[in-house]
Amino acid sequence: MIILFSLSLGVMVAGFKRKQIKYIDTLIYIGEKILFMLSSTSPETDEIMRELEKDERLKKFDFTLKNENSPLSPEENDKSRLLFNTVGKYDLDCQISYINQYLGHFKMLRQQYQEHYNSHYKLYLVFGLFAGIFIAVVLI
After folding, report:
1. CA–CA separation, 140 and 130 (whole Å)
2. pLDDT for the residue numbered 103
3. What's the angle, vertex CA 100, arms to CA 80 and CA 59, rounded to 5?
4. Which of 87, 83, 124 is nearest to 104 (CA)?
5. Residue 97 phi/psi, 5° resolution?
6. How many angstroms separate the Cα of 12 from the Cα of each of 7, 19, 121?
7. Which of 3, 16, 53, 54 has the most neighbouring CB atoms within 10 Å?
8. pTM of the model
9. Which residues, 6+ apart, have CB-to-CB distance to 57 below 8 Å?
10. Residues 107, 128: Cα–Cα separation, whole Å
């Protein structure tokens, strides 16, 4: 029982790392969608937000940006909040420039998280398994 519990903890840690990658994918998708809308039709800020909220892929995304469910660090959450705070505040060229910087940052961050996940997820599972075996042996 202890072994299964510790193995499940390893699975949960690996799942959390995977959740971070999926969340960053969502942020990148939002940035690309905003960039596309600004580049093509230059809509008002309210119209951009309505379009994002209607998107099926973003049904579970928290647009209030309280980030209680965000798996990212507070610093990364602040950067994602900045995207929504700058849309509509500056001229079109500045907004497009900022969104491109935002996308570059989060694409780089996604790559780092993916590389970390690829190189460490098996370690989480093995560590969980061996920690459970160790505890079980010590208790016996």
Report:
1. 15
2. 95
3. 45
4. 83
5. -60, -45
6. 9, 10, 10
7. 3
8. 0.84
9. 26, 29
10. 30
Contact between 5 and 127 under an 8 Å Cβ cutoff? The reply is: no
Q: What is the pLDDT along the chain (140 residues), one digit of tens a residue?
A: 777 778 788 888 888 889 999 999 999 999 999 999 988 887 888 888 888 889 999 888 887 767 677 888 888 888 888 887 878 778 888 888 889 999 999 999 999 999 998 988 788 778 888 888 888 788 87
Q: Please say whether the beta carbons of 95 and 87 come within 8 A.
A: yes
* Per-residue tokens: 65: 């940006």
> Which residue in this structure is represented by tokens 């060229």?
93
Question: Token pair 């599972």 is at which residue?
Answer: 125
C-alpha distances in Å from residue 97, one per residue of 35, 91, 113: 9, 10, 24
